[in-house]
């Protein structure tokens, strides 16, 4: 997946919604998590530049694993205590540690991979990977006539394939509209040169 595109949209949305003190807490520094994080920073910086917002702060850390741990929760809590408004919890159950800290500190979280708004009311949006879309494409190719062109080959899915994005039906963003999201999403689909 082009996780950088989903991360970009999450960072962009956070700044457009008014957040200026953010965090990225990734699990292990594997390619997918790195792409989510770099995209998140790029999106936040791009939105800030567009709007003339200065003083964007982004705390950035990899926990070294994908488990929910007291250490990850403690780190997230200290970030919140020091003014971080929203943390992108990107690393499996690491996100659960971030959500627990956010609940304690009355703060916000950006989820990852799937719509995590159902996991905690601290989640304002999630950077999605279209796992269902990928499975649908693979099954369609396997049962159709296109498997020879699809099977055994690396396929990368992103915005152009409808396989990354934000869950507009469940987000709790207040200052950034679905229409504004769609406009930015289309720029990414067209390949505008800012990623």
Strand-helix topology:
Layout: H1 3-16, E1 21-26, H2 31-51, E2 57-62, H3 70-81, E3 86-90, H4 94-105, E4 108-113, E5 123-129, H5 131-143, H6 147-150, E6 164-165, H7 178-190
Parallel strand pairs: 1-2, 1-3, 3-4, 4-5
Antiparallel strand pairs: 5-6
Describe this structure in words.
This protein is α/β, with parallel strands linked by helices. Helix content is 46%, strand content 16%. The protein has seven helices and six strands, in the order H-E-H-E-H-E-H-E-E-H-H-E-H. The chain has helices at 3-16, 31-51, 70-81, 94-105, 131-143, 147-150, 178-190; strands spanning 21-26, 57-62, 86-90, 108-113, 123-129, 164-165. A six-stranded mixed β-sheet has the order 2-1-3-4-5-6, sandwiched between helices. Strand 1 (21-26), helix 2 and strand 2 form a beta-alpha-beta unit. Helix 1 (3-16) runs parallel beside helix 2 and helix 3 (70-81) crosses helix 4. The protein is globular, with a radius of gyration of 17 Å.
Features:
single chain, 195 residues, alpha/beta, 7 helices, 46% helix
Short account of what is shown:
The chain is an alpha/beta fold and 195 residues long. The protein has helices at residues 3-16, 31-51, 70-81, 94-105, 131-143, 147-150, 178-190; strands spanning 21-26, 57-62, 86-90, 108-113, 123-129, 164-165.
């Amino acid at each position: 997946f082009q996780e950088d595109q989903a991360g970009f949209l999450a960072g962009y949305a956070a700044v457009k919604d008014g957040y200026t003190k953010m965090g990225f807490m990734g699990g292990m520094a594997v390619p997918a998590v790195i792409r989510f994080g770099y995209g998140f920073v790029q999106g936040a910086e791009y939105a800030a530049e567009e709007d003339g917002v200065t003083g964007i702060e982004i705390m950035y850390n990899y926990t070294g694993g994908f488990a929910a741990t007291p250490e990850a929760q403690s780190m997230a809590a200290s970030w919140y205590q020091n003014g971080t408004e929203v943390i992108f919890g990107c690393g499996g159950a690491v996100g659960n540690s971030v959500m627990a800290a956010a609940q304690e500190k009355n703060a916000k979280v950006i989820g990852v991979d799937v719509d995590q708004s159902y996991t905690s009311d601290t989640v304002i949006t999630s950077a999605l990977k279209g796992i269902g879309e990928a499975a649908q494409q693979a099954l369609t190719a396997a049962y159709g006539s296109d498997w020879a062109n699809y099977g055994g080959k690396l396929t990368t899915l992103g915005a152009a394939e409808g396989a990354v994005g934000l869950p507009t039906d469940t987000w709790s963003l207040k200052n950034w509209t679905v229409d504004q999201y769609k406009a930015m999403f289309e720029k990414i689909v067209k390949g505008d040169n800012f990623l």
